[in-house]
Amino acid sequence: MTNNKKRIVIIGATSAIAEHCARFWVDDAAVDMTLVGRDISKIERVAQDLRVRSPQSVIHVLESKFTDSIAIRQLVDRVIAGGIVNIVLIAHGTLPDQIECQTDLSANQEALIVNGISPMLFAEAFVGHMQKANSGTLAIIGSVAGDRGRRSNYVYGAAKGLVTRYAQGLQHRLASTDVKIVLIKPGPTDTPMTMHLKQQGSHLANVEDVSRLIVKAINQGKSVVYAPTKWTLIMMVVRHLPKFIFDKLDI
Amino acid sequence: MVEVSSWGMLGSWEHEVLALSDRHHVVHQLKSSRSGIAHGMGRSYGDVCLNPGGVLWKTTELDRFISLDESTGRLVCEAGVLLRDIQRLVIPRGWILPVTPGTQLVTVGGAIANDVHGKNHHMFSTFGDHVRGIILVRTDGTIIECGPDFQTEWFSATVGGLGLTGVITEAEIQLRKVSGPWLDAETLPYANLNEFFQLANASETEWEHTVSWIDCLSGKNARGIFMRANPINLINHPEPKSHKRTIRFVPPVSLVNHLTLRPFNAAYFNFKKRQAGKRIVHYEPFFYPLDNLLEWNRMYGPHGFYQYQSVVPLKVGNDAVQAMLREIKKTGEGSFLAVLKTFGDRQSVGMMSFPRQGVTMALDFPNQGDKTLKLFASLDAIVREAGGRIYLAKDARMSRDLFETGYPRLNEFLHYRDLGISSAMSRRLIGS
């Protein structure tokens, strides 16, 4: 059955930022939304909430492995078979323990795959279809951590740096088409993923505010967006700090 | 550890904050945690939502809707959903929360645990009266489903139970039909307490919402502004623009002091007096007048503030309120926010619920240490003499003795306590 609702796909739909983005979308208009996650019962809980918020929307749920290229290809092909996708948001990730990554190579590998390789595989799988249709917006959540490697989280930062370069490449590849690639770089945000940062007293951004900015940036098709926007300035400083000063900082 | 304070900002204390975000996982989280207390938006004024040095189970991420039956008005949601989000979801669909407090920035779980009331208590009782069922997770791993028609004793202990019987994860609420967001409101100045009681009495049968602001420093005859409203069916009325303002920092001294209070109260009275008469108002500014002034609690300065809210029986209401106002005026302390309202003859479902038939007065006082506590001691004496009680959601310093006198069902309630749950208030008033 065809309908003229906007088609939105969210990978990692149980992440707090993704869930709030989905709420903004369904509040705005009835949509046809596919939520993809690793645990069907958790995705179903998010879907149930969205259905109450927007009974006119159609919410599908799909379970998938995030690190298996064949499963990713099959899932994306299946989603695309349902029709042209207007928005894809790739939002999954974990915040690994840096010290553990330094001592346990399998934890290190897992962190790099989940945060770096997996989002790229999803992006690649979607973008070919979108290029063929010459339409749609693909948004990927990177991180401010990807802008410069720092001792406190360089494994996570490296994975997110990979996402940054990859998104840049896609933007270059699709510059002459109507497909838009949006790279989102949230600062530390108050979500279950960052609970331990909060315990250490870090000031975290409100997830609703961050998600509102992301949805706005996606609607506008911006290439890169820092959320909250103050991180644009902070990261400009961090990127340009001379090494001899940077090395003295405990960040 | 994270520094957490409650709305009164009387201090901030270190807590281990554990976020609950998956309602099916809460039972495991509670079992593997030290003793704690559920904490939603932290809008309670005193210490009911605090647990210094211990654990806070933060519930604001349990914020999902589960189902809404638009034909019957039954809403099921997680306990961390804000009343604001419910109102915005259901009002356009012809339903409304039957009872809400003066802020909508509170969670469903908090509204149940404090059995909050609103301006329509005389018609619709308390929040708990409209809850059809809850899921309560206990620290020993048991999950209790209870409601007004099943496991009623657990329900009665948990509504108004200050979070001490377990952690509420889900609730089913019976909404009320409404034709839109508009109210037909009337503002009436009154010149003394007798006039207030006459207005309150005359309004209770015809007006759904009644409340009044009182000028607590105006002298022997306490003048004030009486407001009453009824829902009205209006189509295509333009929605008001929301102007959010934030008090961005804590000023070094309280902005509420001898210099500001009397002129403010006089100016406010005269301003409102000029607005006397009927108007059509949107529910948000009428129900939640301070919600657009974010962080307004900061205006009381670095030492924070207390809210003193009591209820006393009607037959001694006039004298008791008069006596309290006299004590307040004697000290020269006082309040911008001074609310006077009558509660109707409605038995609350909760064993520890605050509302009972009578007159309730709520006043904010900047924290000036001993001076303020001394004033409260004299107010307590009046409340005790009148056979009244203090609202636990607002309290931070009441004596155990006044608590026990005011809440006669305490011993019955204690059977249902979860011993893995403790708050600053439970330790202060119950001893554990």
TrEMBL record, chain A:
GO terms for cellular component: membrane. InterPro entries: NAD(P)-bd_dom_sf (IPR036291), SDR_fam (IPR002347). GO terms for molecular function: oxidoreductase activity. Pfam families: adh_short. Keywords: Oxidoreductase. Belongs to the short-chain dehydrogenases/reductases (SDR) family. This is Short-chain dehydrogenase/reductase SDR. It comes from Methylotenera versatilis (strain 301).
TrEMBL record, chain B:
The keyword Flavoprotein applies. SUPFAM superfamilies: FAD-binding/transporter-associated domain-like. InterPro entries: FAD-bd_PCMH (IPR016166), FAD-bd_PCMH-like_sf (IPR036318), FAD-bd_PCMH_sub2 (IPR016169), FAD_lactone_oxidase-like (IPR010031), Oxid_FAD_bind_N (IPR006094). One of its GO terms (molecular function) is oxidoreductase activity, acting on the CH-OH group of donors, oxygen as acceptor. PROSITE patterns: FAD_PCMH (PS51387). Residues 10-178 form the FAD-binding PCMH-type domain. Keywords: FAD, Flavoprotein. The keyword Flavoprotein applies. It comes from the Bacteria. This is FAD linked oxidase domain protein.
